[in-house]
Amino acid sequence: IKMPLGDEETCEMHDLMHDLAQMVGDECLLVDSPSEYVNENTRHVGTVNNSQAVLRSASLSNTPWHLRSYVQFRGRGRLPKSDFDGNISSLRRLRVLFLKDKRYESLPESVGELIHLRYLKVCVHAHYLPEGITKLRYLQILDLQGSSNLRELPREFYRLTSLKHLRLGADGPLCDDTSLIDMPPRFGELTSLQSLDRFIVGENTGSDALSGMNLAETL
């Protein structure tokens, strides 16, 4: 340890503390190189730069039952859709998933197999979300900011009975627009919903759908 006056001071760490720090460090991994390896102790993974290629090279699907969160900070280098689908469907114990790649025009139905998800943020070029997403019965936060081309939500969206926070607006304070043309049928049945940043009045849903909801925060 370097001190302010240039002197150096050393300290000794107990072997047990060293082992604990090493174990905790192994649980979190920021992947920035195709040569990175996700070991069996890893619980939380973030990728940057060439993140789609990293998804494949890190062989995330080899340890699907361990990962609890996956965050894609930036995406370069498109991964074939078949590989993308295969990786996502194998991460069955994820609690947190953040996907950011505007080059994807759809999400796989297999997202609905991630039944333990609590937080899902999607920033893609999709016009629709797969119906399979309505199987995520434990989902509490759905953030679709940045998916500005999204036109419709799944018809059985009301099945997300644990949903507490829904963000639909464009990503950024100067972007108030959204491509949504309507809210899904039976939207008012989402009685656990606490915050909503957009509500679109259309053929399926009128503003009266909000009357029976316990929204603490809405625009």
TrEMBL record:
Pfam families to which the protein is assigned, alphabetical: LRR_14
The keyword Repeat appears for this protein: yes
SUPFAM superfamilies xref list: L domain-like
Residues of the Disease resistance R13L4/SHOC-2-like LRR domain: 86-204
Keywords of this entry: Repeat
Gene3D superfamilies hit by this protein: Ribonuclease Inhibitor
Endpoints of the signal sequence: none
Cited InterPro entries: LRR_dom_sf, LRR_R13L4/SHOC2-like
Superkingdom of source: Eukaryota
Protein name listed in UniProt: Disease resistance R13L4/SHOC-2-like LRR domain-containing protein
Lineage, highest ranks first: Eukaryota, Viridiplantae, Streptophyta, Embryophyta, Tracheophyta
